[in-house]
Amino acid sequence: MPTRLYDLAGADPNLRFSPYCWRAKFALAHKGLAVETVPWRFTEKNEIAFSGQERVPVLIDGEKTIPDSWAIACYLDDAYPDRPSLFGGAAARAATRFLNSWADTVLNPGIVRFVLSDIFGKIHPKDRDYFRTSREQRFGMTLEAYAAEREQHLPAFRQSLTPLRTTLMAQPYLAGERPAYADYIVFGGFQWARCISPFALIAPDDPIFAWRERMLDAFEGLGRKAMAA
Amino acid sequence: MPTRLYDLAGADPNLRFSPYCWRAKFALAHKGLAVETVPWRFTEKNEIAFSGQERVPVLIDGEKTIPDSWAIACYLDDAYPDRPSLFGGAAARAATRFLNSWADTVLNPGIVRFVLSDIFGKIHPKDRDYFRTSREQRFGMTLEAYAAEREQHLPAFRQSLTPLRTTLMAQPYLAGERPAYADYIVFGGFQWARCISPFALIAPDDPIFAWRERMLDAFEGLGRKAMAA
Lengths: 229, 229
What we know:
The structure is a homodimer.
Chain A: E1 4-8, H1 19-30, E2 36-40, E3 58-61, E4 64-67, H2 69-79, H3 90-122, H4 128-139, H5 143-147, H6 150-160, H7 162-170, H8 181-196, H9 207-221
Parallel strand pairs in A: 1-2
Antiparallel strand pairs in A: 1-3, 3-4
Helix pairs in contact in A: 1-2, 1-8, 3-6, 3-8
């Protein structure tokens, strides 16, 4: 059986927008592993119940089932040591974890406000009640209130990217001279936004913009070819 | 000539509080290199003019002069490859740079508000005009206005430490199983605060607190033994 990845999809099954699934798809590409993606919707919890949890990405590789993007990256690097390393060793893996935490707790939550109304418009109709209820609970307000006047929040969001910007002014990729998992972590967030929303998160003269362009070109345009808003 | 480090001092020459100098002192300890620190004040620009810039730390090692904490760490790891590595290889060094950028642009600027009035009270009298003028220009307001009602800013500051907290919930040190330069980068900020101010930045039940305690014990209490507020 081929390697499979449960991948969040919109109403259009070709729309794949989860930032965490993008991390996993780039990690698989980096390792040179072919994968068959399985479109999955938020409310299809039963479809992935075998994984012991309710979220994607879930990777099936032979006999192994691995949920969680960080665990998938670690699994791939450990299980395929002869292929290009995603981290570059144990020390780099440990150092990359902070970046993963930053992307999970600062970058992606920062992006959501700008793309929220677009997400709601593009998810499968059967997911809408779940999405609205769960997100309104998380944000403590209606989707519409949370997404309102997003332009006003843009300067603070761009300011929150300062550590990313200064790093990319010092080296071409977050992982150094060549892209690796550190880059896929952060790119996942921007690719999520790009797939689901036409909103311009990054100014064209921002060093992050040029890095994102290079990332879109990686792996023969894996990111650029994806269905986007 | 012994290895020397120009180290920011207060009115009391034993008070050494620069977060960037603390990074360098921990890096030297990690490499097992003895160092003679030279107390230096903000306005003694002439004393370090030979380094080609106006800030500390400045390391003198044999014929070499190295300013800037990041450059010092890279220099030490390259010049002393047979001693314990500060990064754990090129990939880890590249991955650690994001953490360095975060500490420089989020952590340390976040701390300053809470310790600013204490800094002003403890620097050398000859530094006060320079310090007031340069910082008031940076903050766009008086020192007193910037430091006012610091308790109100504490929840947002602690929230800004989320990536640090979640990383330290997943692994004992930022560098992994054992402390290394990733830890010294961040510890420098907390040690700066500890030396200059009695203000409680971190709650005792925060995982960051326990990590900071372990860091204070490292290298036979290098951080804990330092003159503190």
